[in-house]
Each structure stands twice: as structure tokens, then as C-alpha cells.
Write a structure and sequence with these properties.
- Keywords: Carboxypeptidase, Hydrolase, Protease.
- By secondary structure, the protein is mainly β.
- Among the domains are: about 1-105, Sandwich (Immunoglobulin-like); about 565-840, Porin.
- It is about 10% helix and about 45% strand.
- It contains 12 helices and 44 strands.
- It has an 18-stranded antiparallel β-sheet that branches. Strands 9, 10, 11, 12, 15, 16, 17, 18, 19, 20, 21 and 22 form a 12-stranded mixed β-sheet that branches. Strands 1, 4, 7 and 8 form a 4-stranded mixed β-sheet that branches.
- The protein starts with a helix and ends with a strand.
Length: about 850
């Protein structure tokens, strides 16, 4: 399948170079084509091409393709390569022509001989000087730049027609795929397109302060399980495709890949100077690079550095199966950099104008089909050092209201170059594939699994979420839940939802409903009201769970300790203020109806204790996430953290007594900080800090209850050896940290490195306590004479647990061994535990 998406690369380079802003005058003659071996038909890399009797020439790329631009004409073209007989082809007196050359191997083949200069390969001197000068060429050092971006994404299922062992034909899945419409590579092997998209956008970036903005102008997408191209356009646009090799690391597939032009170049890579070649009229050093250790998570490939200014002109970087990335057979980034005129400087600046990313997946089993994804991004109308006002860059990612564009005429005019016949067929074939009943069902299953909702067709309603449909616990018995919500077919501004739930044991109906309205889309502002009446349990509030929907669904199973019924009303306003700031204001009213022995002291002489209470609470929440991008999916919005900047959330809650029957006046403050950063070759560290304080005297269910975890599964934002509702605090500071060494250790052990295991270390600390006034609120018995259940608070000693584990077992599983170091004498606790988690991990 690989030749299908690569054989047009040379032609792409030629056409794109004529569309953008060249520094030099355009030549009058263009000759292009492909040079192949007469015996094998394979492309011959680095073959020499020259016009006879002239001083201009070029070399072919790794696929044998070449382009020769010249202001001089001639009568013949000479094609030569080491180990092949020279060929001469006559030239026609025209400005543009294509000549495909076929070379015959010589009778005597020479072995490759490498000659290095005394004192080491001269490539190191060149790379060292190129890195020293990188501030002159790094786009991040510019005051600002902007361009129009065209991106195209194609995804295929391939390798399904291969024969199995003992000469057997393809398996059941292979036979099914073989019946679908397909395109074919030059070897006659079929590939089924399952997704194709095109996106046209405007991209802006400035420094000091660093800001980016992308406005998706037009998009179209077609694929299995894809109903709207807007999400794909946002996730595949230029905002997520900034592969700047002058940075120390290239972030790709959530991996930090060291750049051969980054600070760790000499530690990780070895370099070889191969030749000097002419690219686009510029003489360049051709330098090969590869990791010092084959299993290192690093690139191998070729870079071309111009000989005069020592700036990056072109790079071809690859990662193969030897690197520690799951499900990947090969990753390839091919990028061209081009000089762009800058009216504010005497010299030109350089920017990447063409990027091609290819991801060829490794088959999960020997007989399973594979997949191939190709991303093509081209820039044009580039302008540099003309920054916009700071507020212009908010929001950083924006989808135009009229982004959907399906007219083929529009895309023909906007594409940087004409697509090949096979690529044009892919747009047509993918529509046929997605309408095959099996593929249509498969797409619905994938969409239901990822989104959690199933669309009900023309009524513009979705049913779900799937995870919350059923549970079993000691209070409700069998719990059944049915939820509905509207989608964009109903309205792009009104969002309605609700659910009904019923337990076979308590025979009680629970319900919930919400109405949201999008006031503005720029900046995004939404107002909503919510009402629920449902069963809850202490210690598993939405604030504690932190958006962990899987764990939230699991907490409704099993034995529910300290359950209570809650009537909840919420009115809120949420707005994105720009600069990564999101502000939420809400007024909440809730009741607490315990299903366990509970009471608290009150300052009412007529009633010494109370069992039920109601609170009215005003909440102000500010979230600061610099560099993050908000992606719109139907009527949902989710955040993609794309930088190493910390994310800070501050929340203030004010209890209002007597308003809407509120029983308490109180204050609560909380702060959450999450951060992830690279520690060079040592791996990546993630940590979060939680702190809070409540100076008021209130019943303990209103205090902070740390999230415990009594399951066999590891939960990222919980204390994994702490029981549910084991501690209560009114002042606390907690730190959770994890460092993943990735392949630093196991990649160096011969017998284990093939497993691609990754070693990690974890730790969690919680300090806190409860005031005497809050402790004194608990009476010995309630009004019925039942003993009131109390709680335990932290003493001067902090709660501490540490762990170590192995990630990427069978590419899916993670196993952590965790030790509890303090409060080891508490009843019914575990001082050591093995926790398992699983997810698709690259």
C-alpha cells in the first residue's frame, strides 16, 4: 500500500515550489520524471540528472523521482548512477516535459565505500554550526507569521488480501474486505479507503507572547462512522501539524521524539555526510542520521542543509518497528522548507511549506488487515513579522459557520495541485464503502463506543451514554437508565437532555434534565439549567471524579457505603474569556437525604440535632490553560492540551443561608494544578497538586473527602490504596506524581527490549486535618437513637503511598505495585496492592 501514497511525492514538490513565494527568479524550463531499474522497476535514489553541455543538474529522491529547473536549454539529458549504465534522452524544445528514464545495471557492481575525514565525519561540524545558527531559521523566533493552509487526510485498510500460512487464502475478514470497492497499487494489491478529507484554513502565529490561531474556513470529509467533518478538520489542521525540527522535540502520536537538530542531537544521533546536491537551485549538504541505539525512540533519515547559510532546506525523517511505539510499522515525515521574503529584514527567512506525514500501522496479528494514514499539509500566501493584535488570536481554534463545502469545483480551485486519478477515485469509493451494510454497522459501533451516544436518525435525538445504562448495587438492586439528548440536527444553539433511572430493589424513580443555550460562539458562552433527583454516595462527587466517566459509572456498582438521595438544581454561565481562561459562575441548590445513620449539631435551642439539610451555593470557577485548544464536536466541546504549560483551576464556593432554604453560610476555596513536562532522555513527568481550605463550621459531607479506590483497577486521580470515605478534611494539600521512563531501562536489556515494556514510578501524598469545631458537630446518636457514623481525619502525619510499575504489557495493559506507607493500622485497608489498568497505548 505504501507506493500508492508515495509515488506522487516528487510531483508534489515540483508543483508546490511553483505556487509559493520563491526568492529567486523562476526558470524557463522544467524537466521531471522518474528513474527506475530496468530489471526490478524500482526507483533509483540519488541518480544524477544533467543537461548535456550545461552547468545545471539535480539528483533523484529516494523513490527515483526528480525535477530539474533551469533557465538554460539543451538538446539532450544525461542520466547516470553508480552501478548503472549511463543513458541519454533527447529533449524537446518545450518549457515543460516529462522524461522517465530506465537504467540498466552495469556488469560489474561496486560495493559501497564510505570515506570519512580525519578526526571524524564532517557532518558533525555542519550540524553543530546549523544548530548554532538555528535562531536565524526557527519559525518560533519570528515576531509573527501567517499563511493559508490546505490539508488532506486519507486512511486505508490494506494487507487483507495476503495469503496465510500453508498457502491458505485470506481469512474471513480478508474475504469480506475483498468484496468492497478498492483502489490498487502498482503491485496489484487492493486497499479500501475508509476516510478521506480536505480542509482549507488560515493559520496565524506570533511570539512574545506566544499565541496561535487557526480558522477552519472550509472542510469536507467522508468516511466510515463519520457524520460531520468539522471535528476532523479541527484535529487535522495546521494547529496540530507544526512539525518544527528546530525544536528540541517533535510531538507526534503523544510521543516526544528528539529532533536531529535539537539540543540532544549529539547524545542520541550519529551523522554521515553523503554528498552535496542541488535542491531548488540551492546547493545543499546531504546528511544521513540515525539513532545510536536501534531501539531508541528517535528518527532516522536524511536532511539537506544549504551550504551557504547552513539552514534546513529539506528533511526526510522516519521511525520504524524498532522504536518503542505500538501498532506502528513506519512513521515518515517529509518536509520542505522555503525562503520567504521579509520586508522588515535585509535577509530572507525560512518556513516549512510542504509537510507529508505517513503512518503505516503494524498488523495486530499476523493475519489481520493493516491500516495506512497519510496527511498532506501545504502552506501558501505566507506573510512574516506582521503580528495581529493580541485579542485577534482568541479563540485559538475556530470553525467558520459555513465551513461545510462539498462542491468539487471549489476544491479543484483551492488544491495546491491536481490529485492523481487514484486519489480522486478515493473520494468516490469511500462513499460506496461507508454505505455497505457491514461497514455502516461497524461505523455505528465505533461511533457509539467513542462518543457513548447512538443517534436515532431523523428525530435528531441521541440515546445514551452507554456506560450508564446499567448498574447493580446493594441499594437499588438492578439499576436501569435511559438517557436522551438533542444533537445539532435539532439546533446548534439549544441543547436539551434528560434521563430516567429505576432500581428494582428500592423501586424508586430517579430523573434528570438539562437545558443549555449557546449565547455566543465567539467567545464561546453558554448558559444552562439543570435539575436531578438521584442516588449518590459520599466521596464520589463529580468534583472528585474529575471527569473520569468510566470510574464514575463503576462507582454505582457493588456495596454503596453512606448513600444518600439528592435533589439538585443548578443554573450556570460559562464563557471562554480568551488567553486560555474559562470562567464559570453557577448557583446551586441541593438537598442531603441520608440513607445511613447521620446527624449533626445545630444552634437551634428547639432542635439539638438534624438529619437532613439543604444548601444554596454560589460557585466561581476560573480555569487557566495556556496553549490548549477547544474542539467543537456536535454540541459538545472538549479541550486538547497541546503544550507543556501547567493547567490551573481555582474554585470559590459561597454558602448562602436562608436563600432558597439554604441552611448554612460557609466559604470553601480549592486549587488544582496539573502539569506534564519532558525530562530529556529520562522520560516524562506528570503531576498534579490539589489544595483547599474551608474556614467555616459545617457538617462533614460538605467538607473535602479524598477520592479513594477499592477496585482492582488503577485510577489516575485517586489515592489507590485509600478506601472510599476513609478520611475527611477541611484543609488539605495533596500531590500525585508519575514519571514514565519509557524505554530507558528495558530497551537496553536484550531479552526484554522486544516486548517494548516501559518502566514507571508513582507517588501520592496528602496532608490535612479537621478543626475541632467541625469534629464537634457529630452527636453520639440521632433523633431515632441510632449511633451516628463518624469519620476519621488526618493527623500530623501525611497519607503516603508509592509505587512502581510496568506499562505497555501486550501493548494494552499496565500493572502497578503500590505500597501504603502511613496509616497502616486503619481497619479493613490494604498496605500493598497490585492495580491493573488497560487502554490502547501508543
Amino acid at each position: 500500500m505504501r507506493p500508492i501514497v508515495r509515488r506522487q511525492f516528487g510531483l508534489l514538490v515540483v508543483v508546490l515550489s511553483s505556487l509559493f513565494f520563491p526568492v529567486f527568479a523562476q526558470p524557463s524550463y522544467k524537466i521531471s520524471g522518474r528513474i527506475t531499474d530496468a530489471g526490478t522497476g524500482q526507483g533509483i535514489p540519488f541518480a544524477n540528472v544533467a543537461i548535456k553541455g550545461k552547468t545545471v543538474g539535480t539528483t533523484s529522491d529516494e523513490n527515483g523521482r526528480y525535477t530539474l529547473l533551469s533557465s538554460q536549454s539543451g538538446d539532450s539529458l544525461i542520466v547516470s548512477s553508480l552501478g548503472y549504465q549511463n543513458r541519454v534522452y533527447w529533449l524537446s524544445p518545450v518549457s515543460v516535459q516529462t522524461i522517465d528514464a530506465v537504467l540498466t545495471p552495469s556488469a560489474t557492481k561496486l560495493q559501497e565505500v564510505k570515506v570519512y575525514a580525519k578526526g571524524g565525519d564532517p557532518a558533525y561540524r555542519i550540524i553543530r554550526e546549523a544548530i548554532r545558527r538555528r535562531d536565524q531559521f526557527d519559525p518560533d523566533q519570528l515576531t509573527a507569521f501567517q499563511y493559508e493552509s490546505y490539508s488532506k487526510v486519507e486512511a486505508y485498510v490494506n494487507n487483507f488480501a495476503n495469503k496465510r500460512r500453508k498457502g491458505r487464502g485470506p481469512g474471513p475478514m480478508g474475504r469480506l474486505l475483498a468484496k468492497l470497492p478498492a483502489i490498487y497499487d502498482k503491485d496489484g494489491k487492493p486497499a479500501v479507503p475508509v476516510y478521506v478529507s480536505e480542509t482549507f484554513s488560515a493559520y496565524y502565529q506570533r511570539s512574545n507572547p506566544h499565541k496561535v490561531k487557526e480558522r477552519i474556513l472550509k472542510s469536507r470529509a467522508s468516511g466510515v462512522g463519520v457524520s460531520d467533518g468539522g471535528v476532523a478538520a479541527q484535529l487535522t489542521g495546521s494547529s496540530f501539524q507544526q512539525y518544527n525540527f528546530y525544536r528540541n522535540y517533535i510531538n507526534l502520536l503523544r510521543k516526544d521524539l528528539p529532533s536531529p537538530l535539537g539540543q540532544a542531537w549529539q547524545t542520541i544521533y550519529k551523522f554521515h555526510l553523503i554528498d552535496t546536491v542541488t535542491i531548488g537551485g540551492i546547493v545543499c549538504y546531504q546528511i544521513d542520521f540515525e539513532p545510536k541505539r536501534a531501539t531508541e525512540l528517535a528518527f532516522s533519515g536524511t536532511t539537506w542543509i544549504d551550504t551557504t547559510r547552513l539552514g534546513l532546506s529539506q528533511i526526510d525523517a522516519r521511525i520504524d518497528q524498532r522504536a518503542n511505539i505500538n501498532f506502528v510499522d513506519e512513521i515518515r515525515i517529509e518536509q520542505e522548507w522555503e525562503d520567504v521574503d521579509d520586508s522588515t529584514q535585509s535577509s530572507t527567512v525560512r518556513l516549512p511549506v510542504l509537510t507529508q506525514l505517513l503512518i503505516d500501522t503494524d498488523e495486530p496479528t499476523p493475519n489481520a488487515p493493516g491500516a495506512l494514514v497519510r496527511l498532506y499539509v501545504a502552506a501558501r500566501n505566507i506573510k512574516v513579522n506582521k503580528p495581529q493584535e493580541s485579542k485577534f488570536y482568541e479563540p485559538p481554534l475556530e470553525l467558520a459557520d459555513d465551513y461545510s463545502e462539498k462542491s468539487p469545483v471549489f476544491w479543484q480551485t483551492i488544491r495546491p495541485e491536481g490529485l492523481s486519478q487514484e486519489e480522486l477515485r478515493a473520494f468516490t469509493i469511500v462513499d460506496s464503502v461507508r454505505n455497505v451494510p457491514f461497514m455502516k454497522l461497524l461505523g455505528e459501533v465505533v461511533n457509539l463506543t467513542m462518543v457513548g451516544y447512538y443517534p436515532l436518525g431523523p428525530v435528531h435525538l441521541d440515546v445514551g451514554p452507554l456506560l450508564n445504562s446499567y448498574a447493580y448495587n446493594n441499594v437499588e438492586g438492578h439499576r436501569f437508565r435511559l438517557g436522551l439528548r438533542t444533537n445539532t440536527g435539532f439546533s446548534r444553539r439549544w441543547i436539551l437532555g434528560g434521563y430516567l433511572a429505576y432500581g428494582t430493589r428500592d423501586q424508586q424513580l430517579k430523573y434528570g434534565m438539562n437545558i443549555d443555550y449557546v449565547l455566543r460562539k465567539k467567545p464561546y458562552t453558554i448558559v444552562g439549567i439543570q435539575k436531578t433527583y438521584d442516588l449518590e454516595r459520599l466521596g464520589t462527587s463529580s468534583e472528585n471524579l474529575g471527569g473520569n466517566t468510566i470510574f464514575a459509572a463503576y462507582t454505582r456498582f457493588g456495596t454503596l457505603r453512606r448513600p444518600y438521595m439528592q435533589e439538585f438544581h443548578n443554573t450556570y454561565l460559562k464563557s471562554e474569556l480568551g488567553k486560555g481562561i474559562t470562567q464559570t459562575i453557577s448557583l446551586q441548590n441541593r438537598s442531603f437525604e441520608p440513607l445511613f445513620p447521620f446527624a449533626y449539631q445545630v444552634n437551634n435551642p428547639e432542635k439539638k440535632t438534624a438529619t437532613f439539610y439543604r444548601t444554596t451555593e454560589l460557585t466561581l470557577e476560573t480555569r487557566f490553560a495556556p496553549g490548549s485548544l477547544m474542539v467543537q464536536s456536535e454540541n459538545d466541546r472538549f479541550i486538547v492540551e497541546g503544550t507543556n504549560n501547567p493547567v490551573i483551576t481555582f474554585r470559590y464556593q459561597l454558602g448562602l443561608k436562608n436563600l432558597l432554604d439554604g441552611d448554612f453560610s460557609y466559604h470553601r476555596f480549592s486549587l488544582n494544578l496539573q502539569h506534564s513536562f519532558r525530562v530529556g532522555v529520562l522520560g516524562r513527568t506528570r503531576y498534579q497538586v490539589n489544595a483547599g481550605y474551608s474556614p467555616s463550621t459545617i457538617p462533614y459531607p460538605l467538607l473535602y473527602i479524598p477520592l479513594g479506590n477499592e477496585t482492582f483497577f488503577r485510577v489516575e486521580n485517586s489515592y489507590n490504596l485509600m478506601n472510599f470515605f476513609e478520611f475527611v478534611t477541611d484543609r488539605y494539600v495533596g500531590v500525585m506524581a508519575e514519571h514514565n521512563f519509557e524505554g530507558l531501562f528495558f530497551n537496553r536489556i536484550p531479552a526484554i527490549r522486544r516486548l517494548k515494556w516501559r518502566f514507571l514510578a508513582t507517588g501520592a501524598v496528602l496532608m490535612g486535618g479537621v478543626s475541632e469545631a467541625n469534629s464537634a458537630l457529630i452527636p453520639a446518636t440521632n433523633a431515632l437513637g441510632q449511633a451516628v457514623l463518624g469519620f476519621q481525619s488526618l493527623s500530623r502525619a501525611p497519607y503516603v503511598e508509592v509505587g512502581y510499575g510496568i506499562d505497555n504489557i501486550f501493548k494494552v495493559f499496565r500493572v502497578d505495585a503500590i505500597h501504603r506507607l502511613t496509616y497502616r493500622d486503619n481497619p479493613n485497608i490494604s498496605t500493598f496492592g497490585i492495580k491493573i489498568s488497560a487502554w490502547v497505548n501508543l
